[in-house]
Amino acid sequence: MVAQELSVTDWETRRTLSEDILQHVPPTPVLWCSDEAHFHLSGTVNKQHFRYWAENNPHDLHQRPLDNPRVTVWCDVSRLGAVRPYFFEEGGETVTVASNRYCEMLENFLRPRLEEFDDSEDVWFQQDVATAHTARRSLGILREIFPSRLVSLRGDIEWPARSPDLTPCDFCLWGYLKVEVYKHRPQTLKALKDAIREEGAAIPPEMTNTVIENFRERLRQCITNNGRHLSDVIFKT
Length: 237
Fold this sequence. Notes:
With 237 residues, the chain is of the alpha/beta class. It has helices spanning 8-24, 99-114, 131-134, 136-145, 168-181, 189-201, 205-224, and strands at 2-3, 30-40, 45-47, 51-53, 70-78, 81-87, 89-90, 93-94, 123-126, 150-151, 234-235. The strands form three sheets. Strands 2, 3, 4, 5, 6, 9 and 10 form a seven-stranded mixed sheet that branches. It has a two-stranded parallel sheet with strand order 1-11. Residues 47-64 have low confidence and may be disordered.
């Protein structure tokens, strides 16, 4: 995983975030952690533009064809399991994650999917600082679904920028899915999406519970590191 360098201000923000979650979000409530990623037919996973996952040495050069079809996937993970993946597309074509499309996903996909999980505890939601996530309408919908329990830029607990090492989807889920999905060697976008759905549904709750436990341990490490990135993050030079 490659991440952007942090400033001194970032250190303080990340340390504060870690302290706030550990203090205000006890281990027992459900915390849904969300994110998007690009899955390419070429067999690589590209999240944003500055980090990637690989089974081999991440310092090796990875080349992709210029015409490289991909799908953009959203997923959400908690100790209860993983929500089935959502693909941002229109008319069968992959589209960018604009705020209106993100809102449509929240209303028509996430809200009804959360009702499938029988849990009476308080439910929290975490997202990163992507523009589509933090648009006024997006935050309005999320505050309605998760009143006083939103971890986000301009949320009830502020999520910091440049923090893939703290995001469960980044430090675990996408890398795991990549390895499992590309075992299918998909040759078409349909096959790629089918593999993502199949492997996403196969993730056991025991694994996602461990991921969330690890998330809290990472927060403790972040505090110990005075807000600096954790040691398993590779910095772009």
